User: What shape does this take?
Amino acid sequence: MTQAPAPELSDIAQALCAALILMVPLAAAGLALTQAGLGRSRSAAHAMLGAVLAVAVAALAYFVCGHSWQGFPGRPAHAFTAAGKAWNWIGAEPFFLGGLPLDASPASLAAWLRMFGVGIAALIPLGAGSDRWRLGASCASTAVLAGWTYPLFAHWVWGGGWLAQLGVNLGLGYGFLDPGGAGAIQAVGGLTALSIAWILGPRHGKYASDGTPAAIPGHNAVLVLFACFLTWLGWIGLNGAGSLLLVGGSTASVTLAAINTTLCAAAAGLAAAAITRLRFGRPDASLCANGWTGGLVASSAACAFVSPAAAVITGAVAGVLITFSVEWLDARRGVDDPAGSISVHAVGGIWGLLALGMFAQIPRDWVLNGVRAGNPNQWLAQLIGVATLVGFVLPMTYSLNWLLNRFYPQRVSAEGEPHGLDLYELGSGAYPEFVIHREDFRPR
Amino acid sequence: MTQAPAPELSDIAQALCAALILMVPLAAAGLALTQAGLGRSRSAAHAMLGAVLAVAVAALAYFVCGHSWQGFPGRPAHAFTAAGKAWNWIGAEPFFLGGLPLDASPASLAAWLRMFGVGIAALIPLGAGSDRWRLGASCASTAVLAGWTYPLFAHWVWGGGWLAQLGVNLGLGYGFLDPGGAGAIQAVGGLTALSIAWILGPRHGKYASDGTPAAIPGHNAVLVLFACFLTWLGWIGLNGAGSLLLVGGSTASVTLAAINTTLCAAAAGLAAAAITRLRFGRPDASLCANGWTGGLVASSAACAFVSPAAAVITGAVAGVLITFSVEWLDARRGVDDPAGSISVHAVGGIWGLLALGMFAQIPRDWVLNGVRAGNPNQWLAQLIGVATLVGFVLPMTYSLNWLLNRFYPQRVSAEGEPHGLDLYELGSGAYPEFVIHREDFRPR
Amino acid sequence: MTQAPAPELSDIAQALCAALILMVPLAAAGLALTQAGLGRSRSAAHAMLGAVLAVAVAALAYFVCGHSWQGFPGRPAHAFTAAGKAWNWIGAEPFFLGGLPLDASPASLAAWLRMFGVGIAALIPLGAGSDRWRLGASCASTAVLAGWTYPLFAHWVWGGGWLAQLGVNLGLGYGFLDPGGAGAIQAVGGLTALSIAWILGPRHGKYASDGTPAAIPGHNAVLVLFACFLTWLGWIGLNGAGSLLLVGGSTASVTLAAINTTLCAAAAGLAAAAITRLRFGRPDASLCANGWTGGLVASSAACAFVSPAAAVITGAVAGVLITFSVEWLDARRGVDDPAGSISVHAVGGIWGLLALGMFAQIPRDWVLNGVRAGNPNQWLAQLIGVATLVGFVLPMTYSLNWLLNRFYPQRVSAEGEPHGLDLYELGSGAYPEFVIHREDFRPR
Assistant: This one.
């Protein structure tokens, strides 16, 4: 038996873990506001309702079957054999959270944290589908994500699956490490966002016939920047709770995780401000917000394992990467991602996973994923995880959404889109008493 | 002496309880935004100021006398004798939080939680009085609610009073159970909201002469839906802290309470979306928000005592009930409740109390309200509590507010109302730089 | 050696302290919304982006050198000798958070709390500079505040410095006490806000040639009042965590701190409502919000050391003081402080420090700042602290910002200001789809 049980938590660490998990809904609130604020006013209620329903669908799908397939280290799972070792590939818990007494045990706390985490993952694609993704289709797509795609990858990382076993089975460091979910939440969500953006195509009027993109500014920058404060807090919860569950033992890892999360976001936000100031002559508010959140995303992997200085470097690189990625996708690849979800969550998350491989300084006496001694080649385990995300999860999530689109078209009809999703799908606007400019934006 | 002392909390459970109580202001923030967003823009600052002042008045009234009358199990109370038993009917603590050293004891934590809880109860009627309830009168009404109505009923439920004693004295289950306040906070607030809606009458222009209601959409759906995230978090705090204080012992009950709260809200929000989609062809954003919050309300009773599957059922029923209740009150009963407070908090809360009677699976070795063994007929205790709310609390809160209205008219003057409460009562609008449609809405 | 080590915290108190620190970003979110909401719509994105970047700069400056100079009781510091005693005047930690293993120790938790606290201090001046402070200059000023001014004073109060040593060295009570930062965060920030308001001068159009001030209402009262809920929660975190770190030991002090914080804010908000109602005939929404937040500020000093009744009195006085201070600065002193930062944070904070001297009832067996027995003359220690703020910190922060202004002009150019900072500095507005009244306000 090569699967290691999860580490124990002291009673106090259990309570602190619960207090940290409590913060995660603020990350959801922040992402929802970011997406609504970066979209058009005529789809703002739709964006927010889509976010509430996505969280609801995700929680129910995770309850019905997601948890069963995610599993938990040391609990039932299906395995295959390769290279003479057993590798877990999917959990085998009963459906409906059946087999687990819900108390303060690590397995229970993990179920709670993962139920909230899948809500975060489910929100990410909404930002890429703003202003054109039908509400029913987004709920269906969320069910697929939360009921299958996310649990599968999360099992591999957090459920004692084969990525976590890379340390025990092959001696690659401690196996793939991702305490806060830079891969399992953010990159999975961000790659699904990419799939959705490809499947839906750009908004009407986004690209001229020669491919020149129009700038379509978000309708409420105050909400977008306010959201930075909420995501900050929510991410400390994600990262702190994830670190406790991975490291086990006492509460000692939380302070480092919180400080690193903050420094990473700060450096990323300032890097985005500096880059946009240098390139366009003025700092760009929405790219700064994207940079800040991208710094949080990047911090999710390494927060508990690096020095504060490494967190600053990780954040600064994240801020630069995301700024260029947003522009590259928009102007070069013709991918219309109004909220920057792909760049923030997929690019930021993948960078964070690699940064862990570069900067992690893991004390020799820690036990992570069942490995006590520090094996070499942690970076290789991280690389395998990233390759799995890009080479397996992306095609899978694209295919599933493409299939869904065959049976249940995801894009709003061409006559509905100009009215805005609020009027067309909900029958009333978000701001019925305010006078709105109705003219469309011109290509720049 | 038939009154049982409150259960002890471990040191760790005390700390976690404090961390959960911290979340309750977010529930207040969420309710305030919901009410402001569902009202008119010309009363939006008034709605928010009314919410801040209601919380302030409630905290002070609870400090002055509310806590004295609420009391705490095992501490001084006045009792009457009936059927050969002593029944507590009101607490007898010193005024001004006098007799209680404020530390981490269960009694102290309860005082803190109840001070925040009374703020939640005080916000609920504001939603029913939107756009026409004078600020001073709403403060006076809040003082009555927080200084008398709420503490009295809360004593019966949480202070070792007669509803809690139904188990010890009459063998009805564990006595009336309501850990998170579905009755003591939500239904008390919701029934007061009903009284206020009756006393104030509908907004000018809400009903045509033949009784046909006009649809008056809320002025900011983004705030309303954003609030769903805040109430989610706030309710986990309410439910988790209340469960700890009722169950005592360790931190084990919090994970179940948090997961059940989430699933109940998720099912209720989706049920409201499905119902409005089926009936009107389109999901209704504000009814979905009402459904979500109503699911949270319904979860407050049973969250710590039911399986996740029962929480899903409770939520789904709550979502359906609330959707129909909103329409029934609006179209059939001529009750103008702009924020849906009556349906969400009174209907949702009462349903939650009954659902506890139906679904609760309380471990035999738990001690609740001083009862160790599981008596039969828990549902009867719940029914008696609900009957007390409808048959005693509603008439009392109606009478008190009716009396208040005699001496201090609650409704804004007829010439003031069309200007909006912001200009008329505060002298300036919420959004002075935005251009607003001023025309009134037509009957549908 | 006259410097006392910091008190120990139980394991549980460490976890609760972490849970309280988690709340501080909500205080930051609340201040940011207050300032954006009380400013003009044409500078709203700028206000929010300035807030995010201020938090980012503050965190990085604290990381680079701020922590080194703040230090922690019992750790390395530079001292001078006077009256035969050694007095610490600046910390001597390594830069880049170097010397401190970041775990759950009090020193680590303090570093985390102070990193967030400096973000709060950094936000305060932004409110005084609304609508005219250049983004780059505000970031530079923040770096000075977070890298020098704040750490220096914080060392004196929280790092075992000379103000904290007044008890040990001179027998003045327990030395200067300020658990939640009424002085070290709020007054330092508020006095910097005063410096900024002086250096920038009033907004264009604020004063007629005869000095008559124009009323320039905030553009979004809903955000301002919503922020009251966020600051409430954030301040309980600041005050609770600060109290734990100062008092040490168990979790017992948190309930009192939370209840006092709430009552202080409630009394202050209601006092502001009553005063404005009496003087102007109508309650003023923005002054009520200022009063509420000012009550929170005032509570930061004494929250853990006074009875709830004293907290109510402290709050009521704060509400009155702040209301008059806002008007006096605006109408008599020609100081244009759009968000009321000076009155709320400097006046409120200084009043709170004095109120501690008046009302504190500190148990004889507590150890605070290394002093066990209750020396007399606590009020004198508080007075010395206040005198240091007004007589030393204010001139220092003014000089530093004046110097900065020589090399890097802080005020936006005269041709840029009428366009609004959003268009002029960021290139796009906060609300591009909403129709805005563009006319300027007239003198009243």
Summary: The two ends of chain B are 61 Å apart (CA to CA). Strands of chain B lie at 77-82, 85-91. The longest strand of chain B covers residues 85-91.
